[in-house]
Amino acid sequence: MTGASRGIGKGIAKRFGEAGLNVLVVSRNQADADAVAAEIGPHASGFAADVSTPAGTDAMVKAAVERFGGVDILCANAGIFPAAKLGEMTAADFDHVLSTNLKSTFLSVSSVLPEMTKKGSGRIIITSSITGPITGYPGWSHYGASKAGQLGFMRTAAIELAPKSITVNAVMPGNIMTEGLEGNGPEYIAAMEASVPLRRLGTPEDIANAALFFASEEAAYITGQSIVVDGGQILPESLGALEAM
């Protein structure tokens, strides 16, 4: 479980732990990973790795094999979303977001493949977003590109890995109440709540439940698909549609 020390990743890790699964909590920071693992309980273990590097994802898989005997499920959740508008965004800014969000997905999948192939099955769940594939937001063109890229990667990966009985699917969150979102301030949060037909922001648990479904036997015949979890945010054609409610 990459990017598992906070926000959506932490929510998924805890939900998987509640379901009785062994969870390797992966974060750049060992102390943060250990803290989440301690919350989950004895079936979880913390591990520090930079998953934007091949060495980091290979080490992550090695740790999972040593501690839990193998890899059945990969949740590729690592992601960042620093704001920078075009004209201000640098090439380094763009590369950093694409490396953390998109390249890490490719590397994580590549690293787990030998273990899943050996087992003859596997589940890969990618955390994408509505931003990029469906919607846009000023300052997040690099983020949107990375999240749309994840879905493009997912579709071909699903075809290639299907003969190995490995499924690849994605969850596309809307606005979820996490530490990162809270940093945008109360006015931003109020505006986002007003744009959602259910009139609230989602929780990490809302995303975790969708991820757990993709990881389950009930989803064994589903691959290359994405599910939007956004409280209906992408449905209104305009603010007038919400006002008409």
Strand content of the residues, in percent? 5-15%
Q: If you compute it from the alpha carbons, what radius of gyration comes out, rounded to the nearest whole angstrom? A: 18 Å
Give the integer mean of the pLDDT values.
96
Strand order of the largest sheet: 3-4-5-6
Number of helices: 9
- Give the strand tally: 6
GO molecular function: 3-oxoacyl-[acyl-carrier-protein] reductase (NADPH) activity
EC number: 1.1.1.100
InterPro entries: NAD(P)-bd_dom_sf, SDR_fam
Family: Belongs to the short-chain dehydrogenases/reductases (SDR) family.
Walkthrough of the structure:
The structure is a single chain. This protein is an alpha/beta fold and 245 residues long. The chain has one domain: 3-Layer(aba) Sandwich (Rossmann fold). The chain is built from nine helices and six strands. It has helices at residues 7-18, 30-40, 54-68, 91-119, 141-161, 179-182, 186-194, 204-215, 239-243, and strands at 23-27, 44-48, 73-76, 122-127, 166-173, 226-229. α4 (91-119) links the parallel β3 (73-76) and β4 (122-127). α1 runs parallel beside α2, α1 (7-18) packs across α8 and α3 runs parallel beside α4 (91-119). The model has no long low-confidence stretch (mean pLDDT 96).
